[in-house]
């Protein structure tokens, strides 16, 4: 039986790929890629030649069977996404889940991921964190999500798009208030990498003053609810938090 390798690729800086990743991409029988053109360009940059076929969110379910068949026949394959770690807000979960069900070997290589890069440099607590992917695009759902996160005692990491950042910050200002610290990590590993920290209102101001800060790829981090806020709450607040937690658990 072959092995499915999960291979992270750079999130901006082309130097951020491991020797092992390059060797794996060169040695597997073929590479399943989110976007074949994008991956071919990357391979060309590293001087790697290999077969590449498409596995993206629209064909993953149907392609997974063919991939599993190849693995069962003895071919080892690699899975890559456009940037960073596959499966982290990228295709791959359906395939890996089915491989596990079939008892096939899956090996993930360590590598670039915007979540861990942002978290390691943001200066917020890293002992516990929650990754929320992208917030819902509909305003009402986004605010409901933020309401849930109001009492979160772990650092929260979210992916954000330049088109929505101002709306998200405005909602965060309304729901999380002025005391909650945020960090906006932008263009990580690239030329214009920036970390901005402050309340939602302060970040809104900074992004309005310098519209360049609204551009590019971004990760938003929300500081945990400070312990003093927790302990100084009246009983009403504590009960409300418990109720919120219970509601989250309900189907
Ligand atoms: N699989 C990727 C990873 O491991 O980070 C994430 C893919 S997700 C479709 C793309 C989102 O990740 C972007 O919209 C942005 O929120 C975040 N992201 C990716 N690269 C980034 C970078 N260089 N700087 C900041 N955020 C980045």
UniProtKB/TrEMBL annotation:
Task: Locate the transmembrane regions by residue number.
Answer: none
Give residue ranges for domain Tetrapyrrole methylase. 4-203
Q: What is its EC number?
A: 2.1.1.198
Q: Where does the record place it?
A: Cytoplasm
Top enzyme category = transferase
Record keywords, A-Z: Cytoplasm, Methyltransferase, rRNA processing, S-adenosyl-L-methionine, Transferase
Principal subcellular localization:
cytoplasm
The record, for InterPro entries, names: 4pyrrol_Mease, 4pyrrol_Methylase_sf, 4pyrrole_Mease_sub1, 4pyrrole_Mease_sub2, rRNA_ssu_MeTfrase_I, RsmI_HTH, SAM_MeTrfase_RsmI_CS
Is rRNA processing one of the keywords UniProt gives this record?
A: yes
> Which Gene Ontology cellular component terms are annotated?
cytoplasm
Q: What protein family is recorded? A: Belongs to the methyltransferase superfamily. RsmI family.
PANTHER family reported in the protein's UniProt record: RIBOSOMAL RNA SMALL SUBUNIT METHYLTRANSFERASE I (PTHR46111:SF1)
Write the protein's name.
Answer: Ribosomal RNA small subunit methyltransferase I
Q: Which organism is it from?
A: Idiomarina ramblicola
In the UniProt record, the gene name given for this protein reads: rsmI
């Amino acid at each position: 039986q072959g092995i499915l390798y999960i291979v992270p690729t750079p999130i901006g800086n082309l130097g951020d790929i491991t020797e092992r990743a390059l060797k794996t991409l060169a040695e597997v029988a073929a590479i399943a890629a989110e976007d074949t053109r994008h991956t071919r360009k990357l391979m060309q940059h590293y001087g790697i030649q290999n077969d590449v076929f498409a596995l993206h969110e629209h064909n993953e379910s149907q392609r997974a069977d063919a991939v599993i068949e190849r693995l069962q026949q003895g071919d080892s394959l690699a899975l890559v996404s456009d940037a960073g770690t596959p499966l982290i807000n990228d295709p791959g979960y359906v395939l890996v889940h089915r491989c596990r069900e079939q008892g096939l070997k899956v090996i993930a290589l360590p590598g670039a991921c915007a979540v861990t890069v942002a978290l390691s440099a943001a200066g917020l607590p890293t002992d516990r964190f929650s990754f929320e992917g992208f917030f819902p695009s509909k305003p009402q759902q986004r605010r409901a999500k933020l309401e849930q996160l109001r009492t979160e005692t772990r650092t929260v990491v979210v992916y954000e798009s330049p088109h929505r950042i101002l709306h998200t910050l405005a909602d965060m200002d309304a729901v999380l208030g002025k005391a909650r610290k945020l960090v906006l990590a932008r263009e990580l590993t690239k030329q214009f990498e920036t970390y901005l920290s402050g309340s939602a209102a302060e970040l809104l101001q900074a992004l309005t003053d310098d519209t360049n800060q609204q551009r590019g790829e971004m990760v938003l981090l929300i500081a945990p609810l400070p312990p003093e806020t927790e302990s100084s709450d009246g009983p009403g607040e504590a009960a409300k938090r418990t109720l919120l937690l219970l509601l989250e658990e309900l189907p």
